[in-house]
Amino acid sequence: MSGEQAAVAGQRESVSLLVDCDTGIDDALALAYLCSQAHVELVSVSSTPGNVAAEQVARNNLSLLELCGRPEVPVAIGARAPLRIPLTTTPETHGPQGVGYAELPEPHGKVHAVDAVELWVEAARSRPGELTALLTAPLTNFALTLRAEPRLPELLRGVVIMGGSYYYQGNTTPTAEWNTHVDPHAAAEVFAAFSGLPEERLPVVCALETTERIELTHEHVAALASEAGCTEPELVLPEQPEGRRSMASNELVRHVSDMLRFYFEFHRRYGQGYVAHIHDYFAASVAAGTARYGTRTATVHVETAAPRLIGTTVADFRGLWGEPPNARIVSENHPGEAFAELVSSLGGLARRLPDTTGWERP
After folding, report:
1. Which of 250, 344, 228, 332 has the alpha carbon at shortest distance from 286?
2. Using CA atoms, how far apart are residues 129 and 133, in angstroms rounded to an integer?
3. pLDDT digits (tens, 9 = 90+) for 195-206
4. From start to end of the chain, where are the E strands?
5. How many angstroms separate the CA atoms of 9 and 159, rounded?
6. Does the structure show a pLDDT above 60 at 176?
7. How far apart (Å, rounded) are the C-alpha atoms in residues 115 and 78?
């Protein structure tokens, strides 16, 4: 095992992130968490089509950044569809707007005039060795950026990918994870671009076998509201009617609670219990340097041809293919620590933010 990482609050090294997401409930939670971290610089947030269309992703990102006190962060759009196949979205999983039952405020800011790919290339070239890419969406925009700047793996400080599943059941087909299934051709191009690079240059991959261990429950929502200083307990319970809206006294908690209730109901509907797998939060904590984890180096293949296996990711951990490694796959994480970090940090942000809506309990 390699890649063991740990971070101690108060001793966190500054991190500058290029974030690419398809927001998405778990993307939203990840983005809000990053906004709560004083040591994290959000250089830009690019919007990839996935959970919803790219324009809706960008609106969600603008609204969340403003809500979380980071209105200055550029939000860009790149691709509007996967590289070679039609776009599939997931309103049944994340809601028609991508954020469950939450009704986010209309953003004041606008999408950046520069295309996401151009923005990333310019940033990477101007700050070589400084920026880490956090990719929680299908890898369309990143693949296009690699086409525009093949030196990107050398220019970036690091890359963290949420995607794939290895020796583990898929969440979209029996073998495929959502992000790689939406744009398998992009994922294949991305992994190929890192083939043969030194181990420290290989992307850290947060796949389903570890992200599904980050299983959020209604107790975590209650703890978050308490940490945020809400005047009454926030109860998001399985016996409550579906679609019930939060009455929390804190604006950010209300929106997060309404997102997560939808996500709980989705997971229960598909036989997984009244829980939420917040895949992208874990990837964000890895990129931010706040998670403790271990990795195994591997050669990843993404299937792009076989109809029933499209988007399937296979990892050769033992070098049986005789091909150089192209990834470091997370093999160990610590859910208890992850939730303690999330509740403390996101709850602290919620407590500090002003409520700009003038909302009062009905």
Report:
1. 332
2. 11
3. 999 999 999 999
4. 2-5, 15-21, 40-47, 75-77, 131-135, 158-162, 204-206, 215-216, 276-277, 293-302, 313-316, 327-332
5. 22
6. yes
7. 5
- Pairwise CA distance, residues 135 & 17, whole Å: 10
Asked whether the CA dihedral 113, 118, 119, 122 is positive or negative, the reply is: negative
**Cis status of the peptide bond prior to 129, with omega within 30 of 0:** no
Residue 361 has pLDDT above 90, yes or no: no
With the C-alpha atoms ordered 123, 129, 132, 135, is the resulting torsion angle positive or negative?
Answer: positive
Q: Give the distance from CA 348 to its chain's centroid.
A: 20
C-alpha to C-alpha distance for 61 and 75, rounded to whole angstroms:
7
Residue 282: phi and psi, rounded to 5, are: -60, -45
pTM assigned to the model: 0.95
- Per-residue 3-state assignment (H helix, E strand, C coil) for 249-281: CCHHHHHHHHHHHHHHHHHHHCCCCCCEECHHH
Classify strands 215-216 and 313-316 as parallel, antiparallel or unpaired. unpaired
Helix (H, G, I), strand (E, B) or coil at 129: coil
Residues 6+ apart with CB under 8 A from 341: 285, 290, 291
Q: What share of the chain is helix, strand, coil (3-state, %, to 5)?
A: 35, 15, 45
**CB contact at 8 A, 145 and 20:** no
pLDDT at residue 1 in the model: 35
Tokens at residue 224, please?
């978050």
Average pLDDT value for residue range 158-179: 96
Task: Give residue 359's pLDDT.
Answer: 55
For residues 182 and 85, what is the distance between their CA atoms, to the nearest angstrom?
A: 8
Cα–Cα distance for residue pair 163/186, rounded to 1 Å: 12
φ and ψ of 336, to 5 deg? -60, -45
Q: How many residues does the chain have?
A: 362
For residue 50, CA distances in Å to 22, 25, 82, 86, 335 come to 5, 12, 9, 11, 26
Angle at the Cα of 46 from the Cα atoms of 40 and 47, rounded to 5 degrees: 130
- Among residues 288, 356, 274, 291, the alpha carbon closest in space to that of 330 is found at 291
Q: At what angle do helices 140-148 and 184-193 cross, to 10 degrees?
A: 40
Residue type, 273: G
Phi, psi of 113 (to 5 degrees): -70, -25
Is the model's pLDDT at 228 over the cut of 70? yes
